[in-house]
């Protein structure tokens, strides 16, 4: 179970670190609004547990980032708007950041960078000269390198989020996403991600793709 008080404190620290010299309003209501979004009932994988994991992975990777606190803000917003039956969640999340952060005291340039990073999570394909994008995308995809039981729980939670999609359509769509990821030259762009997560993630993705390719009624 996620520790909401600890998450709230993490957001407050991050927001205060990214504000301009004039400061801003009480950060707690902004934290609570985001936490409320991350606890919406339609979520099964994109929950506060996922948010916590992404933030923890950013902590591991922060030495590679140009501005780790901006990356952390992007993590808070990257799935802040999430409806499984909609395709523009990242765009709507980026627009939420563009509205909320200036009001909260974050300078325009940092707000724009947060929004850019959120939009980057559509394809998880940051440029070679984009260290902040690399850190956010690696942290978001780190779940793919989980041990077998955690990876199985992840895939089950994703399926639950898309419970309204018929099995055949889900298998087809999920397989397409897995192929898109496997077609990337590298899943992970930071040195740590490449060395610690790449091989396991590719193994997990390939195994899941093979399972999806089996006939639905195949007992094996």
Please characterize this protein's 3D structure:
There is one protein chain. This protein has 220 residues and is mainly α. Helix content is 65%, strand content 0%. Helix 1 (4-18) packs across helix 4 (68-77), helix 4 crosses helix 6 (108-120) and helix 9 runs antiparallel to helix 11 (198-213). The model has no long low-confidence stretch (mean pLDDT 95).
Question: What is the overall pLDDT average?
Answer: 95
Class from helix and strand fractions: mainly alpha
Gross morphology: globular
Percentage of residues in DSSP E strands: under 5%
Major β-sheet profile: none
Number of strands: 0
Sequence stretches where pLDDT stays below 50 over 5 or more residues: none
Count, helices: 11
Percentage of residues assigned to helices: 55-70%
Distance between the termini: 34 Å
The arrangement of helices and strands along the chain is: HHHHHHHHHHH
**Computed CA radius of gyration, to the nearest angstrom:** 18 Å
Q: What oligomeric arrangement do these chains adopt?
A: single chain
TL;DR?
Helices cover 65% and strands 0% of the residues.
Q: Could you outline the blueprint of secondary structure elements for this entry?
A:
Blueprint: H1 4-18, H2 28-38, H3 48-61, H4 68-77, H5 89-104, H6 108-120, H7 131-141, H8 148-161, H9 167-182, H10 191-196, H11 198-213
Helix pairs in contact: 1-2, 1-4, 3-4, 3-7, 4-6, 4-7, 5-6, 9-11
Descriptive terms for the model:
single chain, mainly alpha, 11 helices
């Amino acid at each position: 179970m996620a520790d909401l008080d600890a998450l709230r404190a993490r957001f407050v620290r991050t927001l205060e670190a990214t504000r301009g010299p004039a400061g801003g309003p009480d950060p707690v209501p902004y934290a609570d609004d985001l936490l409320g979004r991350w606890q919406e009932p339609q979520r099964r994988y994109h929950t506060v547990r996922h948010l916590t994991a992404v933030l923890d992975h950013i902590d591991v990777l922060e030495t590679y980032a140009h501005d780790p606190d901006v990356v952390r803000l992007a993590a808070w917003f990257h799935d802040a708007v999430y409806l499984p039956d909609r395709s523009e969640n990242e765009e709507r999340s980026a627009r939420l950041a563009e509205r909320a952060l200036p009001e909260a005291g974050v300078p325009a340039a940092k707000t724009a960078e947060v929004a850019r990073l959120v939009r980057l999570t559509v394809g998880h394909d940051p440029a070679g000269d984009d260290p902040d994008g690399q850190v956010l995308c690696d942290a978001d995809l780190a779940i793919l390198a989980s041990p077998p039981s955690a990876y199985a729980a992840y895939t089950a939670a994703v399926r639950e989020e898309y419970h309204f999609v018929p099995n055949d359509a889900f298998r087809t769509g999920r397989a397409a996403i897995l192929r898109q990821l496997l077609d990337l030259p590298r899943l992970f762009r930071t040195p740590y991600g490449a060395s610690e997560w790449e091989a396991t993630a590719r193994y997990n993705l390939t195994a899941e793709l093979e399972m999806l390719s089996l006939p639905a009624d195949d007992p094996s």
